[in-house]
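Example record used in the benchmark description.
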Amino acid sequence: VSLDLSYNRIIDIPEFCFHQLGKLEILNLSRNYIELERAQSFSGLVSLKTLRLSKNKLSYLDPAVFAPLVSLETLELDHNHVPLSIPDQAFAAQASLKRLSLIGDTLALFEANAFVDDTFPREVPLEELLLKGAQLRSLPVAVLKTLTRLRSLDL
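Model output (structure tokens):
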């Protein structure tokens, strides 16, 4: 089951707006003006496997925003228009995340513990990290050390 909301000039995603779409597996929100400022924007999307948020206005990835996405395998955040900050634990709740794409982004900050939560240690499932064309000042070695299953790093 998929939903394509790309090219809709969406600015905001209200909290709980997807809460009745528990069977949704693919959500495409690319090419909008989304900033993702609400913690419960994706609440209820327990079956979501792919989330496309490319070409929006993401500047900060609050870990609470992605926490409800427990089945997420692919997250595409390519070509956002503003510098993007990835804080500690940004993707710690995603126990199924295998592919993260940040192609063409300006990464203002990429914290060392972006994929881990020290209070609940587990193996990070990420297999593919796409950073091609990303403007990245540095990628902490600690980030790569947590990615024990990483098969592909595209710089």
